[in-house]
Every structure is written in structure tokens, then in C-alpha cells.
Amino acid sequence: MTISxxxxxxxxxxxxxxxxxxxxxxxxxxxxxxxxxTERGIIGQTERHFSSDDAQERALRxxxxxxxxxxCGAITRGSCVL
Amino acid sequence: MTRQTxxxxxxxxxxxDAILESISEGVFTVDLDWRITSFNRAAEEIxxxxxxxxxxxxxxxxxxxNMCETDCALRKTLKDGKPIIGRSGYxxxxxxxxxxxxxxxxxxxxxxNQVVGGAETFRDLSEIExxxxxxxxxxxxxxxxxxxxxxxxxxxxxxxxxxSPSTVLILGETGTGKELMARTIHALSxxxxxxxxxxxxxxxxxxxxxxxxxxxxxxxxxxxxxxxPGRFALAKGGTxxxxxxxxxxxxxxxxxxxxLQEHSFEPLGGTETIPTDVRIVVATNRELTxxxxxxxxxxxxxxxxxxxxxxxxxxRRRKEDIPLLVEQFITKYNRxxxxxxxxxxxxxxxxxxxxxxxxxxxxxENIIERAFVLCPDGMIxxxxxxxxxxxxxxxxxxxxxxxxxxxxxxSQAIRTAxxxxxxxxxxxxxxxxxxxxxxxxKIKQLGITPPEKDGRSKTKR
Lengths: 82, 461
Hints:
The structure holds two protein chains of two kinds. Chain A is 18% helix and 37% strand. Chain A contains two helices and five strands; from the N terminus they run ββββαβα. In chain B, helix 11 packs across helix 13 and helix 14 packs across helix 16. Chain B starts with 12 loop residues before the first helix and ends in a 16-residue tail after the last helix. Chain B has four domains: 20-129, Beta-Lactamase; 145-313, P-loop containing nucleotide triphosphate hydrolases (Rossmann fold); 316-390, Helicase, Ruva Protein, domain 3 (Orthogonal Bundle), CATH 1.10.8.60; 403-445, Arc Repressor Mutant, subunit A, CATH 1.10.10. In chain B, the strands form six sheets. In chain B, strands 2-1-5-4-3 form a five-stranded antiparallel beta sheet, sandwiched between helices. Chain B has a five-stranded parallel beta sheet with strand order 9-12-15-8-16. Chain B has a two-stranded antiparallel ribbon with strand order 6-7. The longest helix of chain B has 23 residues, at 398-420. Classes of the chains: A alpha+beta, B alpha/beta.
């Protein structure tokens, strides 16, 4: 048995969604769809939720989920800075 | 008798368009698929999105309100047919600014009375919000909120005190917010990026206090296995707050005086003199002048710390702040306890206004926290207040207690107004918004005894 030692860079992208579309306002969005991808394509998808509208808690949640990219509708400048 | 006939003028589509274009409220309409069918000039201005870009798109993509996802007013109106008037929220404009709005909704029907969509009108509240924030700004400095004239006078000088390097002495009864004031001074000072280090001098025995303040070197005493920096060292570049300075022993007062004079100190067991780089703020609830007179507090240290003096008034002298403070604490504990308390009932607030508050703001905060345990949602009622507030033994006769509460409130308000106006009854009546004869009657009725001479009397030389 051979074990591949080639490591691939995994990127985590989150989409805030509502009604099967991108949620209009990230600051109050409840649902996140997280997609893990490498150069070869998507390797995993999962749904997560926000439990608070507090901007700092949401930023912390994204950090905990190791999200590197975020696709959302509108976002206030304050939340964007965080 | 002639009868006047009312003429209903015919309104053409062009007229309607002209009206919609001329008003300052944003208006848009949607079809039953939630796609925008019309978008007026004000809507373009408020959202920053052009009509051409808006029409045909989903309203949530254009309007981008905090209500779209969970609490869409238009969806509710289309569901139950009832218009919604004046709901508050915010939208995010094209510049990513948060714009506070007030919106109203209506159902759109065709000539056959069939629902064909909905209309939403919205008003930009930015200017009103700015004004509101300006007003709020005047009622707080840092985390301290107050509308009391006594505190307003302090608020005016605190920023200037904060930026000066002088030692500050904060005086005030227990629970008046001395540490909060010290933190505010630090936050507004040029040292705000440095540490804020607080030490309660009354809580520690002398020897421990000394090592806490100045630190020690390894081997200074049994058990001192390694160097420990003191609070003076830890506060380097920031502010050192020494609470209950009136309780420091005479021996330690000498050491403190040396540090304040020479701006340097030596850790216990150390031989090297370390320069201090701290702003000193001290506080006490004791009468330092009395303590200096009876020799408990060194006079030279008193003059050294009494450079800039701030006297925090007790809550009983600024009762007008109680509603504001209650609101602040309700917001705080709703956040901390994940509760949904909406406010406090008028009767409960009256009782709080009638209380004398020996424990000051801290006591008030504790009472609100206690109420949250008994009342995690809805309104804080009289039953959620402790007995010492809700008139022990008077529960069976609530109307009488309420009458008492009102009398006590009136009495307190009159006393405060008299005090504030140098016992001039005319000025006090003006401040209270009542005629002077009404004030005289109330003074007599409530048994208030102002001093013999009032504000009109001249001092005899």
C-alpha cells in the first residue's frame, strides 16, 4: 500500500444563504453553506448557522469555522472590517 | 340650506407618477414574484441604486434591509392583507452605509380587486438618528450616563482632566462609580493604550499592600523565590487607580508620598531605584479632610493627591438619572442573561424613584439584576422588587403605597429643585414647571421645611 504524501491546499468558502439564494444582508443572515475545495474541485460541503446578530460573535464564528472567503449580499462597513 | 357636492378629481397615471417623484419618501412596488415593478426618485436616492438597475430584480436584493430575511413587513401584509405603518429597521445602501429607516406597506390590487403585488414606502431617518446620538452623547461620558445637572457639570470637565497628567482624587459614597470614573479618565487620556491597573488599598494588610504596590526581588523575604513586579511597574505607560486611599496605614502613606514626589520607587529587597511612568488616580469614600485633622491621613500626602478633585454625587441627589440607569442595566442584563425584559412598569419605577439609595448606583444595578432572576421577560413589576424597595408590609394596600410613592417622589423632586436653586422657591417652581403658589401648597402639604431664609434673602454682614 502506498500513501500519497502530496498535500493539497484546502480553501474554505462560506455562502450566506436564504431561500436558496444569497442572503440579502449578511449582518442578519442565519445560514451558512460552507464549501471546501482544492485545485481539483469541491471536496466537501456543510451547512452551519449563526445564532447571534452580534458582529463580533459572527466574525468569531467565521474564524472558528476557518472560513477564508465569504460570499454574501450586502454587508455593513462595520461588519466588513471585522 | 345648500348642499355642497364633493368632487373626487380624476387622478391620471401621469399625475400619480409626478406625485411619487416629488415626495421625499422612497416608494417601490413589487409583483407577486417579489420583483420590483416601480421605484421612485427618493428610493433611488436613499438606496443609491438606479431605477434601471432596480426594476425587475428581487426586492430583497435591492432593498437589502435587516427585515428581509426574517421579518419582511411586505410579506406579512400580503399574507394577511393588513398594512403596516412606521416599522423601524435599517437598509444597507450601495456605499455599504447602514441607513436607519421607517417603513410602511400596503397591498396593491387591480380594478377587479385582485391582489397583484405590494407597495412599500420608506423614510430615511439618518438625520433624526444623528440628532438622537448627539443628544445621547451629551448624557454620557465613557460608560457613565447621566442627565443630572450635577453630573453634566462633571462631564464638561472630565475630558480636560483626562488629558492632563495631574493626579486625580475621586470622592464619593460607596457605589457611586468611582472606579468607573477612573476608567473613564484613563480611557479619555493620552495613556489610554497603556494598562489600567486598579488596587483596593483597604482590602489588603499593610505588608501585602506594600509588596503589591512596589513588587519584590527574589530573596526579599521567605517564599520570595523570584522577582515579582508591583502595580507601579505593571501600570507603566498607563494609569494606576488606588481605591480606598483613606484606609492606607501611616507607614505606607510615607512610602506613597515619596513615590509621588520623586516619581520613583524601590521594590522590596531591591537596591535599584526604578522611575515611575504612571498616572495616579486615587479614590475614597471617607472624608480625607477630617482624616487629616485627626492625624489619620498625612496632610502632605493629602495635598499631593488632591491636585484635581472630582466629587461624585450620591444617587439620591440625581434621581432624575434613575430611568436612564435602569434602561442601561436592562440592556446590559438582557445581553448578559439572553433575556427579553422589555422595561420596567411605571409603578415599579415610581418605587425606585422614592427609594433613598444608600448603596447608590451599585445598589440599583443589583436590584435590576435581581429582578432579572425573577422576571426573564416582559416588564419588571413591583413584585420583582425586593421588600426594602416595595415598602415592606404595604403589599396588601398597594394604592396607599403608590400614593406614598408619589408623595415621596414629589417631595424629593421639590427638595432637589430647592437645593439646586439656592432655596429660591420662585426659581424652583419655574424649574419644576409649576406655579409658585402650587409649590408653596405642596411644600406645606408634604411637610417640607426649607431653611428660614430662601433664595431671596440677603446675607447679613
